[in-house]
Amino acid sequence: MARNEEKAQSMLYRFREAQAAELGLGTRGDRRPKMASACKSLRECERWRGEILREISRKVSKIQDAGLTDYEVRDLNDDINKLLREKRHWENQIVALGGANYRRNVAMLDDDGKEVPGTKGYKYFGRAKDLPGVRELFQGRKEEEEEENQTFAYYKKFLNQGPVYYGDLDDNDQNLLHHERQAEAEDWEEAFANVRETLGLSSDTPTPPIPGQAAQPSIKQSSVISQATSKRKTADGESDAEMNGSRDDNKRTKTEGESDPIITETPAATEDSARLHAQTAASFIPFLQTEHLLPPKMPSHDEMESILLQLRKKALVEEYFGDGK
After folding, report:
1. Domain containing 42: what range?
2. Where is this region: Disordered (predicted)?
3. Which of 19, 46, 18, 13 is nearest to 32 (CA)?
């Protein structure tokens, strides 16, 4: 029997080695590591990545064979996906060692510019696309995309519409507002007729005004209100001037050692202007009357002095003579 050195030099042995190298099998001592992170040489990582690419190319060519059974096609497609996953691990290791970046995240597109189904995750090659269940998967995705495109084409005409389309400018149309007021008045009268019939009121009962369409103040009332407010402002200005003058007098008298003078205040508004304001406010609030909106009547200075004097007298009488019980 020939020795091992002689066997290694034989033509058949060298042919087997070349065939194994072409198929990517390699020798027993020169096999690809199972873990890409275990390889610390950039050159070796490049070598194993090239070997995986050759295996993928060979199996992709083999999966096109029409004589393969469905089971063999499924096994080949699974092997190709495993090799792709392993290739991605080696590419990550190459990047970690400072090598070139072979990773590409560009999606595959068809003639219409849409992403080809099956390009992410698990991929199908060659006859694997015609396997039972896979063809229906691709057709279902295509039908879903067509439905989405039809829906988008239908709703596309509603995009980029102006405010007129949404009715934002209807408030500026006086004719439309007039028709709306007429319709609102008719509905109000019909509703009041139903209430009057339910409560048994007489037919002569007047229809109350619509709360949202309360009577607006007339031009005369508006002019009177403006005059009253102007008078009020002038009165306030005069009172402020008097108060400032009295403060200056107080400062002077304090420096001279004299007593402080008594400050007198002018009324803020007259009774007529207050009643006019109350009438205007009551016209907008139907369930309130003018008397309800009048400001409270404040006692005058003399009335306050008389009340305080009476209280003081009463306190002195109770202090010296008792409660009188």
Report:
1. 32-154
2. 200-274
3. 46
